[in-house]
Design a protein that fits this description.
Number of strands of chain B: 10
Structural class of chain B: mainly beta
Largest sheet of chain B: 6 strands, mixed
Order of helices and strands of chain B: EEEEEEEEEE
Shape of chain A: globular
Number of helices of chain A: 0
Number of strands of chain A: 11
Largest sheet of chain A: 6 strands, mixed
Strand content of chain B: over 45%
Helix content of chain A: under 10%
Radius of gyration of chain B: 13 Å
Largest interface: A-B, 23 and 23 residues
Shape of chain B: globular
Helix content of chain B: under 10%
Order of helices and strands of chain A: EEEEEEEEEEE
Strand content of chain A: over 45%
Oligomer: heterodimer
Chain lengths: ~110, ~110
């Protein structure tokens, strides 16, 4: 069965600094991987996804992630943090009949 | 176009009562999912509907939970004889292809 581990339940960065949110997956088949963002009292919004092809994928709001099979990782990055990036971020993998298996989430705080 | 909508946005109920949560998916989306988000368990898959196929109920935590999808569109999640551990945010998602799931804002259920 596929699973996802997010390293760090809380990450704090200064405004303008690099954002790095870590995600490692476990999968017996080529994975489909996703990053979702959740703002307070809202649902989940898709940031980006990896299915096949190019391993560096770009998403909304300046985020990108790189699929590294050798490291079983799919870390999320953004070169320069903005106050509006403060939210909870979830890494997920598709399992079986298209159901998402989520990591435990990482809460991102941006310091002014 | 309109996104996934859920109602009610908040529901407070007494232990032992039944509740119904509603999801209106994006028009034309054939797949519909229910997930639960709670502090202790994170984001968990509950049930998945795809077209006219039998639903995947593998994530339902007990036989007190059931869901139906009428006419391939609106879905209702029913929890009978609610317990305090049922308190959570219930998220609905729909998909028009096998990759991207679009989430509603959720229903926050509080069992007192």
């Amino acid at each position: 069965a596929q699973s996802v581990t997010q390293l760090g339940s809380h990450v704090s960065v200064s405004e303008g600094a690099l954002v790095l949110l870590r995600c490692n997956y476990s999968s017996s088949v080529p994975p489909y991987l996703f990053w979702y963002v959740q703002y307070p009292n809202q649902g989940l919004q898709l940031l980006l996804k990896y299915t096949t092809g190019a391993t560096l994928v770009k998403g909304i709001n300046g985020f990108e992630a790189e699929f590294k099979k050798s490291e079983t990782s799919f870390h999320l990055t953004k070169p320069s943090a903005h106050m509006s990036d403060a939210a909870e971020y979830f890494c997920a993998v598709i399992q079986g009949a298209q159901k998402l298996v989520f990591g435990q989430g990482t809460r991102l705080t941006i310091n002014p | 176009g309109a996104g996934v909508s859920q109602s009610p946005s908040n529901k407070v109920t007494e232990k032992g009562k039944d509740v119904e949560l509603r999801c209106d998916p994006i028009s034309g989306h054939t797949a519909l999912y229910w997930y639960r988000q709670s502090l202790g368990q994170g984001l968990e898959f509950l049930i998945y509907f795809q077209g006219n196929s039998a639903p995947d109920k593998s994530g339902l935590p007990s036989d007190r939970f059931s869901a139906e999808r009428t006419g391939g569109s609106v879905s209702t999640l029913t929890i009978q004889r609610t317990q305090q551990e049922d308190s959570a945010v219930y998220l609905c998602a729909s998909s028009g292809n096998r990759d991207e799931q679009y989430f509603g804002p959720g229903t926050r259920l509080t069992v007192t």
